[in-house]
Amino acid sequence: MKAKTIWIDICHPPQAVFYIPIMQRIRRLGYPILITVQHNQESFGLLERAGLPYRAVGRKYGRNLFAKALGLLTRCFQLWRIVRTCRIWIGVSQGSPYQIIVCRLLHIPVVVTGDNEHTDWFFVKLSQKAILPEAIPERSLKMPIHRIVRFPGLKEEVYLSGFKPDLRFRAVLKRRSHEVRVLVRSPATFAQYHQSQTSQLFERLMERLLSYPNVQVVFLARSKTEARSVREKHHAAHSRLIIPDKVIDGLNLIWHSDAVFSGGGTMTREAALLGVPAYSYFQGLCLAVDQYLVKRGKLKWIRNEQDIQHLVLKRRSRSQKIPENRGLLDLIVREILSVRTDAGTRLP
Asked: What span, in angstroms and rounded, lies between the C-alpha atoms of 181 and 260?
């Protein structure tokens, strides 16, 4: 592999979506890219659709602390075996502890991108540069300010700026003319930050949405087991419940929906920025980037069952203007590539 190879490590599907335009831009600039992906069929599908080759390395290791610790060591070793024979110039990730550890061992500068203040700062502080949105207050930043680059807007705008709705997508998920289509994303039950109240609200939300005779629910499951469980539980409403069995274009699905509900953050932020009514039933700490959207009236919280009972659903107009922030992609790519020349990129 040539010199000046950029190594990007992806641990979750939203990271794949974010890094795809960045990787495409870096490749057009002439830099080879090594992409490693922690096992996830959704991440694989997104990269394959973008025509980006990758190497699957490691799997999910569960929430048990011992299993996570063993998994950390195992995947670090697997990555080390791959990377040590490559001439990696810069490592880039969204705070991947695996990549940061391997880069430290091999003396490779690493750049971290992020979107929230509740990241694992222990590992992020080992990076040479962190690229973060201005919406995160300075008091929440737990590494030297000279190693932080702050950008206006949200990270989702990196790939939304190039989004063009596919009008043919309407034929992918057919609905009757009077139906309201809502998109529901399940909570991330495997995540360390998950709380049982989020799962409870998800159950109440699904029951309420499927009780409407004119509502079509498109449910995006995080696993085949979850998809099967939801299908069995709500079999009575099967004609109005759609569960895609393959990776689907998420942004077009959002655009062609009348409302989006999620127990995570990325999808609700995407919907909010695209002008689609966005609701979060996540019960953990509110992120600064989400507060940024709430203050602007683009995102609403579902905090209890009363909020679910008071939902008003209707067909929406699709005349909203898609956000344009093309300079953000250039800024992030420029900051990634400059880590080798910046005075502050020496290993701390």
From this structure: 9
The token duo for 282 is 């996540």
Residue 283: pLDDT band with limits 50, 70, 90: confident
pLDDT digit string (tens) for 211-258? 999 999 999 988 888 889 999 999 877 788 999 887 778 899 999 999
pTM, rounded to two decimals: 0.84
pLDDT at 347 over 50: no
Domains of the chain (ranges; CATH) run 5-161+326-345 (3.40.50.2000), 167-309 (3.40.50.2000)
Distances (CA, A) of 129 to 18, 19, 31, 105: 18, 17, 19, 17
